[in-house]
Amino acid sequence: MARAGSAVPEEPAPPRRRRKQHSRRQEVLDTAARMFFERGYEATTTQDIGAALGLLKGSVYYYISSKQDLLFELIQQYHEDTRSYFAEILESDGSAVDKLRELITVDTAHTARNLERSTLFYLEWRSLPLERQAVIIEERAQHEHAVQKWIVEAQAAGRIRPEVDPKIASFAIFGMVNSVYRWFTPGGRKSAEEIGEDFADLVLGGLLVPGA
Amino acid sequence: MARAGSAVPEEPAPPRRRRKQHSRRQEVLDTAARMFFERGYEATTTQDIGAALGLLKGSVYYYISSKQDLLFELIQQYHEDTRSYFAEILESDGSAVDKLRELITVDTAHTARNLERSTLFYLEWRSLPLERQAVIIEERAQHEHAVQKWIVEAQAAGRIRPEVDPKIASFAIFGMVNSVYRWFTPGGRKSAEEIGEDFADLVLGGLLVPGA
C-alpha cells in the first residue's frame, strides 16, 4: 500500500526483513478487519487497532497511515479476488448460462467465506472518498454489464425466457448474492459453496415446478 | 412518539392544535428523512434539521428529543406499512404460491416507493440501541418464517420444486427484494410496481426456459 509505506526507508530491505514486513502488514489488516467487523468502522480508532496489535503509541503511524487507508486496502483486497475469478469466468469456454451459473456460485461463496471483509465492503464503502468509491462503482458496473450480456446471449440462444428484463435480472442477482453476508454463519448447516450452488439453482430454475 | 412528546403539556390540546402538532411532527420527520438520505445519518445534526425547518435554536428540542429518536420513528413508520400489508397477505385466501408472489411484489414496490426511509433502514438500523434493533429483528424473523412455511406448503402441494431449501430460499428472496433501494430511480424506465412483478416472476419462474 503506497501511502502506508511512505514512512519506510527507501533502500530495499533484505528479503527476510521484507517478508517480515509483509506478514506484519497482513497482521495489521487482519486485526483491523476483525475490529471493524466486531465494533463497526466508526467506533474503532487507529489507536484501538494499534493497542490490539501491541504496538507502542509512537509506532502506530509507522504501520497505519490512516483508518481510511486501512478500509480502502481491505476493500481492495476483497475486490482483487473478485477481479481474478471474474476474469477467469469471462475467458472460459462455457455457454452464457454456464458463465452465469459459475459467477453466481463463486461470487456467493466468496462473499460468505470472507465475512469480515464483505461486511465491511457492503456497510462501509460509502465511508471512502468519492474517487475511491468511483473505482468500485466502475468495477461493479462491468460485472452487471457482463451478466446482462450473458442473459441477452442466452435469450438469443433460446435458453433464457424472452420476457426476462436483463437489467432488472442482473440487479436482482447481485442483490441476492451480496446479501449473503447478512446471515451466513461459518460452520453452519451449509457451506459457503453449497449456498452458492443453491443460489445459482434458484436464479436459473426458480421455485416453481414447471407446468405444475 | 412518547419521548419526543415529553416536553408537551399534559392537558389534552384542543383538536385543532393537536392536528397542527401532528402535521408539524410529520414535517419534522420528512425533513429528517430527506437530510439523512442526502447527507447520511452520522453527518446530520439535530441542529441541522432544526435549521432546515426554520426552528429557532431554543425550540429544536421541543420537536426533536434526539437524532436517534427520529431515526427510530422513521424506521418504525416504514415498518408499520410492512406490518399492515404483511398481515393482509397472511389473512388472504390465496394459495401459498399466491401469497409468496404477492409478498415479493408488494415488498419490492414498498421498498422502492419509500426510498429515503428504506435506505435509512438498511444502512442505519445498526445505529439503533440493541433493544430497538431486537424489535426489528423479531419482525423480520416472522416474515422469514412465513415465507419458509409457504414454500414448505407449496412443496407439499407439488407446486414448488422439492429440492429447494426453504430457509436459503427465504434469505435469497429478502436479499433480492431489500436490495432494490440501492439502484431504484423514481421516474425511471419501470415503476416500483413493475419491478416488484419482475422480481416475483424471477423468483418463481427463474431465468431458464424449462427443458431447453
Automatic annotation (TrEMBL), chains A, B:
Stretches the record annotates as Disordered: 1-25
HTH tetR-type domain ranges (all copies): 22-82
Source taxon at top rank: Bacteria
Q: Name one Pfam family in it.
A: TetR_C_24
Keyword Repressor carried by entry:
yes
Q: Which UniProt keywords apply?
A: DNA-binding, Repressor, Transcription, Transcription regulation
What PROSITE patterns does this protein's entry cite? HTH_TETR_2
Question: Which stretches are labeled DNA-binding?
Answer: 45-64
Q: What is this protein called?
A: TetR/AcrR family transcriptional regulator
- Organism (species): Pseudonocardia yuanmonensis
Ranked from the top, the taxonomy reads:
Bacteria, Bacillati, Actinomycetota, Actinomycetes, Pseudonocardiales
